[in-house]
Write a structure and sequence with these properties.
Blueprint: H1 3-27, E1 35-38, E2 41-44, E3 52-57, E4 62-66, E5 80-82, H2 85-90, E6 94-95
Parallel strand pairs: 4-6
Antiparallel strand pairs: 1-2, 3-4, 3-5
């Protein structure tokens, strides 16, 4: 493969990654005051009145919500928080399988 093709593919990959990150940033609905550092990473905390965590995976094009009693709840870093399951479903999220 020619070097120009490798550079072009690398640029395209970086460009698409940046677009994906920008889309993810726009969907985050959690206020900055609800952020903590855990393991050197920024984690978002859902407020007590909206305990359901909404998680968006742009690579898989999925939106999943996690209830507080779900096994994956504690390790989920949410982009959205919901008061009710119906609110999550109306926003296009599906219930987690775990």
């Amino acid at each position: 493969m020619k070097i120009q093709n490798i550079y072009a593919l690398s640029f395209l990959f970086l460009f698409l990654s940046a677009l994906s990150l920008k889309a993810a940033e726009q969907e985050i609905s959690i206020p900055k005051d609800n952020l903590i550092l855990r393991g050197g990473l920024e984690w978002r905390i859902c407020p007590k009145d909206k305990p359901i965590k909404g998680n968006i995976n742009n690579l898989k094009n999925t939106k999943i919500y996690h209830l507080p009693d779900a096994s994956a709840y504690k390790r989920t870093n949410p982009e959205n928080c919901f008061k009710t399951e119906m609110e999550a479903i109306e926003a296009g999220f599906r219930k987690s399988l775990h």
